[in-house]
Amino acid sequence: MGVGEFPWDIAISAVGLVVAVAAFLRQFVFGEHRQLGYRVQMNTPSSTLAALGGAGDPPDGLMLVRIENIRHTAIEDEHYPDNGGPALVFPEHTVVAAAVTERVTREGTSVEALSPALTGIAATNGDGSAIIRLPKERLGRGEHYKVLIALKGPKPDPADPNGTNVVGVSGSLVGGAELQPTNSGSRRDPVLVGLASFLALVVLAQLLFAVLQPDPPPRDCAAGDLTIVGSTAMAPMIKKAAQAYENTCTAAHFTFQFSSTENGLTKLAEAGTNASMVAIGDGSKGVNFPTLKETPVALSSFTLVAHKDVGVHDLSVQQIRDIYRGNVRNWNQVGGVDAPIVLVDRKADSGTRRVMEAQLLEENRKVFRYTSCAGIPAGAQQCEVDDTENVSTYVARMPGSIGYVETSAVAAGLVPITIDGANPTSGDIRARRYPFTAVENAYTNGTVAGDSLAAQFIEYLRRGKGKLIVEQFGDIACVELPQPDVCTP
After folding, report:
1. Per the domain annotation, does 194 fall within a domain?
2. Which pLDDT band, with edges at 50, 70 and 90, does 117 fall under?
3. What's the total number of domains in the chain?
4. Confidence of residue 125 (pLDDT cuts 50, 70, 90)
5. Domain that residue 282 falls in
6. Which of 74, 93, 420, 463 has the most CB atoms around its CB within 10 Å?
7. In this entry, which stretches build a coiled coil (predicted)?
8. Residue 42 located in a structural domain
9. 306: part of which helix (H) or strand (E)?
10. What is the CATH number for 152?
């Protein structure tokens, strides 16, 4: 297994889980369940409160200490030892007086009951230091009380507001948990803070893996190389769909050889059944390619386009037939300007041309000797080009010209011609008001394996996300048609 294949996200999650469980066991099972914390909230000279030290003998300093339960479990009376319980120690001072000034609790002794107890237990330790042994007071989670202490001895150092050099601790609860100094404004347990930080890093790492690691390809992705041939009218749509497929299924690769429907069918037939090739064709294959399997993909529309100066925007089917049969040779005969009509045709092997002749002309039109539009002589009635793009180029260039392209290929500067008032819109096509349409088919040489790239890509166009691209180009997926028989081969 390579580094890129290692399931890092699972490994990181497992490490995070192990650390979280270990921290939980340390905190709540094997660790110290109960612990008192203390925090010096004031350490100041007592010049303004001289009366606390007795008449004529004021204390040298005042200290306010907060005593709090810093764990999650309540501290009860039985958790204080009879001897050597938690205490505050003042090595260089004498305790003059002590009083509880605040008690935050849900239940327990009142301030009035605590203060006399504290005053009574202020004493001198065996080594000469002053000591205040804390009372056996119940403290639930988050509960605290504050002790105001008057001291005799060295005056408070302004550089030591937290009394670090004044007060210490001794003794412990049952189980050995000593008084723990806490930071101002916080009761955070360093272990829990560390755990939270570690888990945050785990989540961040998982997020980075999720963002940076490419999604695995879907199950229906196929790998390999596929050559697509056939209709130039469908080339832009097929190329975009193939690119989208490659983006999702990264092991798939496409090459394109679009020339015409007939050339594509011929290449596919000659390539044999083992070739990784698909042909895209306008309309049916006919009877000349018996080994090719035809799969309908979408209903596509085509549009007649004219030079911008002809003065015509709509033609009836009969007028179109008259134009292509040579009965109408000037635009003024169909309501346009006085200009001769020039037909820009696709070559005879074009599927688009076959569709136009079948759908609009009843296979009956005037036949011309082949003339390339690149070298069309003056006065010529018709010329031919190789592909859809050149139809647009020459119609835009030659006054009086008319041609036909796939609807999505109508270029700016050309005049799209409606047919009997109908447009190549989804509504008119579905209602069968617009006649210039054809089924776009995908062809394989015989039946291909269902998990092959050829089969999977055709299905992607018909039912997968490729269907959305088909619709972006104005075509209607066969599976979306209200009359499926329209797409029946």
Report:
1. no
2. low
3. 2
4. low
5. 218-489
6. 93
7. none
8. yes
9. strand 292-306
10. 2.60.40
